[in-house]
Design a protein that fits this description.
Oligomer: single chain
Shape: globular
Largest sheet: 9 strands, mixed
Number of strands: 16
Length: 330
């Protein structure tokens, strides 16, 4: 049976606007799921664009909120400011164990540990991005810095994240709205570890896709994600998205492959999109020209807020979970 139908004018226009706006999001999402960096931190953090544009900046692991008001000037004030800010941003199981500061003499300490294990990230939020003003008002030296989320709970998904670094410099400054923040500006050597099951990653992708699609009148029904790592620097991801535009079904399958070279540049290839159901072929026809701009494109994989820090290596493996291990430092 052949379907014959005419889309209402407003639905057609909405699809056009939505697919044009979604094109760069689709490319970045394809790469995100390919290297699994999408879960590297809170979705509401960002900072000013670097001079050389990378696929991603390290916003989720470099910016830590402080409570409104004056910047902390003592160990006690720093502890209280961090706890209050995390209490506002997340649902914490026990705020008294979130921050641990030991040793040294402020503003230099031996250990700063932030433990967000079992904290819940807020659902269905799209907060304004955090942008540092680039004017440090103070600096904190930390011999050993740790950030742990074992796990972080995000839309019923469990994401395991840990960051550790030695000889760290944290800048006390404000974002462009005047809110105090703590910025990871330098580290002699650091590691970031992340793992999650494909099912949990799929839940995060589904939640993010629903937030992105909602302004265009598109309902995301379900997602199916498959990730394969040929080597630790070569990853392929396939994502099927089932949607509805009004009451009309539209299915899309995205495929992307990423190769990471020794200089930590990522090349995106084999970027494909196919449609199914009634509206899928029409929508992918609108998306393909925009996606073609990203085919074969090479960019630095990660950028940091400070030029003093660089990504040294990243290893991606897939078994019953997707694992990412990254090394960075000055």
């Amino acid at each position: 049976m052949r379907y014959r139908f005419h889309l209402p004018l407003r639905v057609s226009a909405a699809i056009g606007r939505g697919t044009r706006s979604a094109t760069p999001w689709v490319a970045r999402t394809a790469l995100s799921i390919a290297i699994c960096w999408a879960a590297g931190g809170p979705r509401n953090a960002a900072f000013a664009a670097p001079v050389t544009k990378a696929w991603f900046d390290a916003r989720g692991v470099c910016i830590f909120p402080l409570s409104p008001g004056a910047l902390p000037t003592s160990r006690e004030e720093l502890n209280d400011s961090l706890v209050d800010a995390w209490r506002d941003a997340l649902t914490l199981p026990d705020p008294t164990r979130v921050v641990l500061i030991q040793g040294g003499r402020y503003p230099a300490v031996d250990t700063l540990r932030i433990d967000l294990s079992d904290a819940k990230l807020p659902s269905n939020t799209n907060k304004e991005k955090v942008r540092p003003d680039g004017k440090p008002r103070g600096r904190l030296g930390v011999a050993r810095f740790e950030l742990v989320g074992q796990p972080l709970l995000c839309d019923d998904a469990k994401l395991n994240v840990s960051l550790s670094a030695d000889r760290v410099r944290l800048d006390l400054e404000h974002d462009k709205t005047g809110r105090p923040i703590l910025l990871l500006a330098d580290a002699q050597a650091g590691t970031l570890k992340f793992d999650a099951t494909p099912h949990d990653l799929e839940r995060v992708v589904l939640s993010s896709a629903r937030i992105a699609a909602a302004p265009y009148g598109v309902s995301i029904v379900s997602t199916n994600l498959k990730i394969n790592a040929k080597t630790t620097h070569s990853v392929t991801a396939v994502l099927h998205v089932a949607t509805r535009v009004g009451f009309i079904p539209a299915g899309m399958t995205f495929k992307a492959h990423v190769d990471i070279d020794d200089a930590m540049n990522a090349k995106l290839t084999d970027l494909k999109i196919d449609g199914d159901d009634i509206l899928g072929p029409l929508i992918v026809g609108l998306l393909r020209p925009g996606l073609a701009k990203f085919e074969g494109k090479t960019r630095p994989l990660i950028s940091f807020p400070s030029r003093d820090m660089h990504l040294h290596d990243v290893q991606i493996t897939v078994d019953d979970k997707v694992h990412l291990n990254a090394a960075f430092g000055n």
